[in-house]
UniProtKB/TrEMBL annotation, chains A, B:
Protein name (database record): Helix-turn-helix transcriptional regulator
Gene3D superfamilies per UniProt: Winged helix-like DNA-binding domain superfamily/Winged helix DNA-binding domain
Keywords in alphabetical order: DNA-binding, Transcription, Transcription regulation
Organism in which the protein naturally occurs: Roseomonas indoligenes
Domain HTH hxlR-type span(s) in chain numbering: 10-108
Molecular-function annotations in GO: DNA binding
InterPro entries: HTH_HxlR (IPR002577), WH-like_DNA-bd_sf (IPR036388), WH_DNA-bd_sf (IPR036390)
Length: 123, 123
DNA sequence: GATAGCTGGTTTCCGTCGGAAACCGGAACA
DNA sequence: TGTTCCGGTTTCCGACGGAAACCAGCTATC
C-alpha cells in the first residue's frame, strides 16, 4: 500500500496534520542547525505558550524529529536538537516560511482588493 | 522592514498561520494544475466538513491564492482554481505532503520506539 | 404529484483544543 | 526573606473544529 495523505485512514494523514502546524513549522525552523533550550525557544517565538510548546516538543520528539537532552546543571537545562530526520523536514517547512516572507506583499494586496470588493457589494 | 515570521506583529506570521494548516495544504495540493468543484474537493478530502471547506476556500480566495467561478448551470456549479501565486505555493506545500509520504515509515518506527520506552519507564 | 437527489452552502450544537495565568520544586543571589 | 531562573504542569475559559440538520432551486424517478 502506498501512502496517501488524502486517505484519512492512512497514517500519512496523521503525520501531515502534525507537521502542517504553525507552531511546529516555527519551532522546526528555529532548531535547524542549532540546538536550543526550552525557554530560549519560548522567547524566540512570542505568542507560543509554555503548555503548547511542551506539547509540541513532545510530539516532535515522539515522531523522531528531535531529541531532548537534560543537563544536570542548576537549574536543570534542557536542550532540544533536530535529528537527521528532523533536519530534512526543517528544510521543507522552512520553504513555507520563506514563501510567506517572499509573497507577503502580494497576499496583502490581494486581501485589500478582496475586502474593498466586499464593501462595494455591501453598499 | 523585512518580514519576520517569528514576530507576532508581522503580517507574515498571519499568512504563515494560515498556510501552515492541514486542510489548506491538502486543498492546495489537490487544486494544483486542475480546477475543481466544491463537492469534488469535499469527496477527495474525506473528513473535511462543508463548513470548514467553505471557510478555508474563502480565506484562500481572500489571500489571492485561488479564484472562485460560478457557472449558471443547473444546478449551479462553482469551480475553484489556483492563481499563479497559488500555484507557486502549491509546489511548496506539496513538498510537505511528499515528505510525509516518504518518511512515514521512519516516523512510525520512531513513535513505536518512543511509546515502548514510555511503557518501560512506567513499569 | 410526491419523493429523492444534485448543486453549494449556512446554521446549530457540542466537544475539544489553544491561550493566559497560576503554581510547582530547587538553587543561587541580593 | 524575597526574587529570579530553570522547565515544566495544572487550571480555567473562550474560541475553534467537526457532525449533522437545514436551505433554495431544479431534475429525474416512481
Amino acid at each position: 500500500m502506498q501512502p496517501d495523505a488524502y486517505d484519512p485512514a492512512c497514517p500519512t494523514r496523521l503525520v501531515l496534520d502534525r507537521i502542517a502546524d504553525k507552531w511546529a513549522v516555527l519551532v522546526l525552523g528555529l532548531l535547524a542547525g542549532r540546538p536550543t533550550r526550552f525557554n530560549a525557544i519560548r522567547r524566540a517565538v512570542p505568542g507560543l505558550s509554555q503548555k503548547v510548546l511542551a506539547e509540541t516538543l513532545r510530539r516532535l520528539e515522539r515522531d523522531g524529529l528531535l531529541t531532548r537532552t537534560a543537563f544536570a546543571t542548576v537549574p536543570v537545562t534542557v536542550e532540544y536538537a533536530l535529528t537527521p530526520l528532523g533536519e530534512t523536514l526543517a528544510e521543507t517547512v522552512d520553504a513555507l516560511r520563506v514563501w510567506a516572507e517572499t509573497h507577503i506583499g502580494a497576499v496583502q494586496s490581494a486581501q485589500r482588493a478582496y475586502d474593498s470588493r466586499l464593501v462595494e457589494g455591501a453598499a
